Amino acid sequence: MRVTVIGAGTMGSGIAEVFALNNHEVLLSDVSNDILNNGRKKIEASLEKFKEKGRIKSVEDVLEKISMNTDINAQESDLYIEAVLERIDVKRDVLSRIRSDSIIATNTSSISITYLSKFVRNPEKFIGMHFFNPPPIMSLIEIVRGNSTSDETTKRIVDISRSLGKTPVEVNDFPGFVSNRVLMAMLREAIIAYEENVASAEGIDTVMKLGMNHPMGPLELSDFIGLDVVYDIMNVLYNDTGSERFKPPITLRNLVYAGKLGRKTGEGFYKYK
């Protein structure tokens, strides 16, 4: 199967890697060669870890299955996956430029599939395929149908997900689906607790890790996801639901405005080397 992944950031490069690991021909596309090269470096680093653990024999054999191009229509693919920024204007631009009649999936984690389907040629072949970070490791994929998504498209994406060794879960087209509807409310409350000086960042995270058996505390997880991504998702949920439980806290907003986005910039709620 030929797959085009649009967006060479953390999620897009990881999704491309997943398909290449499963012997699919992948085109990874983004707006510049610099971004594509950075995406390739992320894939190489991830594959090296797989090789060290004995999960693959050759990094080069997997990389050969991935080509890169700034033209999203550079090859005719059986499946297109949009994995760009969690912003409607960016996704609208990308989706409207795909000229194929093949299935198009979006990796959105919060935006309405029904709404985004307005920007593709065949809404019945449009679906949400929400991978989790990091895609090569995490087993879950949320499969989200829009109002026009056909049964055939849904079955095809469920089957593809299983063929990748993933566990697909079908959810309905509500703001945040299941994962971020639950997660963002928790992250927001943790940030509010930090903002109100209930405890330090380390204290909040330690309580959640040791008391709730979470592998990663909520503030540490926010840094890992990217505070800009968390902020964008909360804004989508707040605007779509009108619920205060999703309103982005001022502390989060200020960190994003200051360019302190978490691990990827070296500082967020924590500082990183």
TrEMBL record:
Positions of the record's site feature: Important for catalytic activity: H130
Query: Which residues are in the 3-hydroxyacyl-CoA dehydrogenase NAD binding domain?
Result: 3-173
Asked if Transport is a keyword of the record, the answer is: no
One GO MF term, please?
A: 3-hydroxybutyryl-CoA dehydrogenase activity
Q: What EC number(s) are associated with this protein in UniProt?
A: 1.1.1.157
Q: Which PROSITE patterns match?
A: 3HCDH
For this UniProt record, the keywords arranged alphabetically read as follows: NAD, Oxidoreductase
Q: Which domain of life is it from?
A: Archaea
Enumerate the residues binding NAD(+): G7, A8, G9, T10, M11, G12, D30, E86, K91, S109, N133, K264
One GO biological-process annotation of the entry reads: fatty acid metabolic process
Q: Does the keyword Transmembrane helix apply?
A: no
Q: Where is the 3-hydroxyacyl-CoA dehydrogenase C-terminal domain?
A: 176-272
Q: One Pfam family of this protein, by short name?
A: 3HCDH_N
Q: Which family does it belong to?
A: Belongs to the 3-hydroxyacyl-CoA dehydrogenase family.
The name under which this protein is listed is 3-hydroxybutyryl-CoA dehydrogenase
User: What is this organism's lineage?
Assistant: Archaea, Methanobacteriati, Thermoplasmatota, Thermoplasmata, Thermoplasmatales
